[in-house]
Amino acid sequence: NRGLNKGNSKGSSMDLNKDSRGNPATSKATRGARGRPTQLNNCSAMRSVVSTILTAALAISCLTACDRQGAPSYSHFEEIPSSGWDPLDVLTFYPTPADSTEPLHSRYDLTMVLRYAARHKIAALPIAVTVEDNNGILHADTLILRLSRAEGSPKAVTHYGVTELRLPLYQDERITDGYALTLESFSPKSHSEGVMNVGIIMERR
Predict the structure, then answer these.
(1) Which of 152, 169, 197, 203 has the most crowded CB, counting CB atoms within 10 A?
(2) Cβ neighbours of 4 (radius 10 Å)
(3) Residue 129 confidence (pLDDT)
(4) What is the percentage of the chain residues whose pLDDT exceeds 90?
(5) What's the mean pLDDT when you consider all of the chain?
(6) DSSP 10
(7) CA 98, CA 177: separation in Å to the nearest integer?
(8) Band of the pLDDT at 21, cuts 50, 70, 90?
């Protein structure tokens, strides 16, 4: 009996400390505990990547918004020949917002810009302005641009021999379907010699 008891106790001890192949036994709880640090590290790395992506996206969004605030919704210029603006050359503009995400009910201010060589003396320049859409004519006006430095003339800025004159046309304007703006000179071609560019700028209110 003593021999049997000794053999049984040894066998029990071996069964507890080794598996069937003789390798040291490892419990499921121990294996699970060893795998947790790796899982936690993976989760931490994933959160770091997501945070970096969200931060970059937010920065790009802010930069884009700031850029949109500083730029006009529409800006287009036509070049005028050095010999002058021919009355037969009618300039047509289609001011549509560059950003297609702007709401349809947005309102805009339209400004005409005239650039001319400062060395040329242009006293006055009559221009016909017509605005129409799919439903017909919205505006029809005749403007007299006084380009001299006389009192009452619009403010102009000169840089490197080029003078730029800005004249507000229409404010709080809604851009409807088929919206088009035309400019037509009423002066003889020789009277507008020195005019370099004529353009339209549209800014959202």
Answers:
(1) 169
(2) 8
(3) 97
(4) 43
(5) 77
(6) H
(7) 15
(8) low
